[in-house]
Write a structure and sequence with these properties.
Strand content: 5-15%
Mean pLDDT: 98
Helix content: 40-55%
Shape: globular
Structural class: alpha/beta
Low-confidence stretches: none
Bound molecules: 5'-deoxyadenosine, iron/sulfur cluster
Distance between the termini: 31 Å
Number of strands: 7
Order of helices and strands: HHEHEHEHEHHEHEHHHEHH
Length: about 325
């Protein structure tokens, strides 16, 4: 598929869109059957040195910042294990302190799960030696979305370079991580052509996981008054990611549900095969304002009902 075909398919709606979704489901079925994966996320810190224009946890926003302790993380992981989930996902803002914290807790987590656990991290850009250290400590995967492959837009929104981000992704691939990339759809100033390029970038890098989320216009951010991303454009992006990266793990993210109830079922119908349940302790969860105070927090029950509605099982 070339860029112009991708751009054309990004725009399909109605019957043609249903054809696109059914192709995506058929590619998923051929490579994964009807099996989906449930992950358990623990949001280990809301501190962040970055100042992304779309995020309420940006450095300039005064808020009550937390960094969980190893013991708190292990306690949350007990609920993940108790729910029969074998993937622990540690997510947090971009701060150097998470390297030592995650590095300490990963071996403990592995011991606690008797080795039957996959550890995925999403902790922002780090140095190659930090990534190597975390891999040595036992991390399997790392999600570092490229967000947008438009270098100017990336710089405007994140005040760092796309090149640095891609260099981190390359380091992670070199070090043997399962790497996740992905984009945000509907960012102010984003061109349709750059979304097609986001899709081609994921193919080019051959990443193992691809996460697509609609832009959420979060309160207390410089982009608060902008319109949120279009869900159909997001779903079409996901379907194309599935068709072009058949083996990839593609989550139906909570932002889809935030845009409209049932949005995550729609994500599965467009080819997703992963859902993430939130296990952050209640007090910290309230402070993890990634999409603002009323984000959608996925419970185990919601994940199970969503998979059932999509005809998938774990
Ligand atoms: N809208 C959509 N996605 C967002 N993220 C952060 N803020 C927003 C927003 N307002 C996503 C980024 C980041 C991931 C952890 O959350 O893609 O990589
Ligand atoms: Fe920090 Fe991530 Fe928010 Fe950017 S999106 S400000 S890196 S927490």
């Amino acid at each position: 598929m070339d860029k112009s075909e991708i751009m054309q398919l990004l725009n399909v709606r109605g019957e043609q869109q249903q054809v696109l979704f059914s192709q995506a489901r058929s590619v998923r079925f051929d490579h994964h059957g009807n099996k989906a994966i449930i992950r358990g996320v623990i949001e280990i810190t809301n501190s962040c040195q970055m100042n992304c224009l779309y995020c309420p946890m940006r450095r300039d926003n005064p808020m009550d910042r937390y960094l969980m302790t190893s013991d708190q993380i292990l306690e949350a992981a007990a609920s993940i294990r108790g729910s029969g989930i074998g993937v622990v996902f540690l997510q947090g803002g971009e701060i150097p302190a998470t390297t030592q914290l995650a590095g300490r807790v990963i071996p403990e987590l592995k011991k606690y799960f008797h080795g039957n656990v996959e550890i995925i991290l999403c902790l922002g850009n780090k140095t190659r030696s930090d990534f190597a250290f975390l891999k040595n400590q036992g991390a399997h995967g790392y999600i570092l979305k490229h967000e947008t492959c438009d270098p100017q837009l990336f710089m405007t929104l994140r005040q760092t370079t796309l090149a640095d981000r891609l260099a981190c992704m390359k380091d992670l691939m070199d070090l043997g991580y399962h790497v996740g990339t992905g984009n945000i759809i509907g960012l102010p100033g984003q061109s349709p052509s750059s979304i097609a390029e986001d899709i081609l970038l994921a193919v080019e890098y051959g990443t193992h996981m691809v996460s697509c989320a609609p832009f959420i216009c979060a309160p207390d951010t410089p982009l608060a008054s902008q319109p949120s991303g279009d869900i159909d454009l997001t779903l079409n992006t996901m379907a194309l990611m599935r068709i072009l990266n058949p083996m990839a793990l593609i989550p139906a993210v909570s932002a889809l549900e935030k845009i409209r109830p049932g949005g995550q079922v729609d994500g599965f119908n467009a080819g997703a095969n992963v859902i993430t349940v939130n296990f952050t302790p209640a007090r910290e969860k309230l402070k993890y304002e990634i999409y603002g105070k009323n984000r959608f927090s996925v419970s185990l029950k919601h994940a199970q009902l969503t998979l059932e509605a999509a005809g998938l099982h774990i």
